[in-house]
Amino acid sequence: MAGPKQKQVREYRGQMPSPGRPTVAWREDRVRFWAAIATGVLTDEASETAGVSAPVGYRWFRHAGGVNPQLSTTVSGRYLSFIEREDIALLRAQGLGVRAIARRVGRHPSTISRELRRNASTRTYGVDYKASTAQWHAERRAKRPKVAKLVVNERLRDYVQQRLSGEIHDAGGAVIGPDGPAWKGRNKPHRGDRAWATAWSPEQIANRLPVDFPDDESMRISHEAIYQALYVQGRGALNRELVACLRTGRALRVPRARSRQKAWAHVTPEVLISQRPAEADDCDVPGHWEGDLVIGLQRSATGTLVERTTRFTMLVHLPREEGWGVIPRTKNGPALAGYGAVTMAGALAKTVTELPEQLRRSLTWDRGKELSAHAQFTVETGLPVYFADPHSPWQRGTNENTNGLLRQYFPKGTDLSRWSAEDLAAVAATLNSRPRKTLGWKTPAEALDDHLRSVQNTGVASTD
């Protein structure tokens, strides 16, 4: 049985069971978190900026579907702030009355009285007042989410859903196409089947509605509202698994600033191609190399190294790591395909250390992450590494041309892990014994041999 005091409070604010544990952070923490996300930083860094743990930040990002909720940085002065609520709690604990607290805080007595009753603890029907609990109630009550249009308009919802996930039929009306993987809240499968669907984009749906329903204003919705119905938890009536019908197939939206960033953190200003010695541009001094990977089926690969002056080619054997095909692929797990950063650096180092020192002047690579351990490679070999500019294969034209020649032996769509180091050496020897027009019809092996002989003769002459 509730006592008189509990009945009085219940009549004032109604039966209001506790919605759960108070939040671990306040509005200003979320504002700082999303402001950091808007700059393009990762969720871990944004959480640190907001002063919350990484799991909390990931939960905020996931529940919002990666969509910035656009929280206002300031709260109107007509509402009590958290600092004012802390003052109220302290003064209340000191035994001051409502009017005395109102004078100290600078608010109307009715505001203080209403605050003490409305935002007190909900686990009991007493009027124990805590600033954190009061702030939690105030922020929760201030949300007042507007009902989404797709929730109340069933006809519009069916139209949008049919254009997103409608089935594909053949001429006979039978459903065709693979089923695709079961929805697990992740991005589209990597190089795997996806379910076939009509897959209209939200922009196509939004702009087609006035064409199909020119006189029905209720059949209108913006493309952003469709995106939010898909991504924001509890925002709309569309199922989350329908994001698999979008072209990107992303489980979460990517902040615009983050999408502009490139995954080239290993390319620092001092290793850009603009810092490469000028003598490498003229192709007059041997010892400057270009490198890349030739990719095959099932993540197999072979490394290629081409000397810019003589066109001499070396192939790098990249066998599978132990556990390939046995250990399931895991996110951020070990690179078992054979060209992870550490494995690649080791295989390259083993190859180039066979060269004389005068033939180790520079190596120009594309932007692939397989050479992200370039600093370790340079220390071990003494061969400095430089990276070409984005989308500029012409800066490594010699290597690109050689890779085209190699496709005669290693066609696309074939498993390159079948070939041993001896097989690769035989193919490299074949290319190096093929005469080239740019070398005056000498072979790359002959051009390299002539250079080494001239260097040796110059050394003997200088000794005399």
UniProtKB/TrEMBL annotation:
GO molecular function: DNA binding; transposase activity
PROSITE patterns per UniProt: INTEGRASE, TRANSPOSASE_IS30
Organism domain of life: Bacteria
InterPro entries named in the record: Homeodomain-like_sf, Integrase_cat-core, IS30-like_HTH, RNaseH-like_sf, RNaseH_sf, Transposase-Integrase, Transposase_IS30-like, Transposase_IS30_CS
GO biological process, one term: DNA transposition
Sequence segments annotated as region (Disordered): 1-22
SUPFAM superfamilies in the record: Homeodomain-like, Ribonuclease H-like
Domain Integrase catalytic: 273-452
Keywords on record: DNA recombination, DNA-binding, Transposition
Functional description taken from the UniProt entry: Required for the transposition of the insertion element.
Similarity annotation: Belongs to the transposase IS30 family.
PANTHER family (UniProt xref): TRANSPOSASE, TRANSPOSASE INSI FOR INSERTION SEQUENCE ELEMENT IS30A-RELATED
Name of the protein described by the UniProt record: IS30 family transposase
Lineage: Bacteria, Bacillati, Actinomycetota, Actinomycetes, Pseudonocardiales
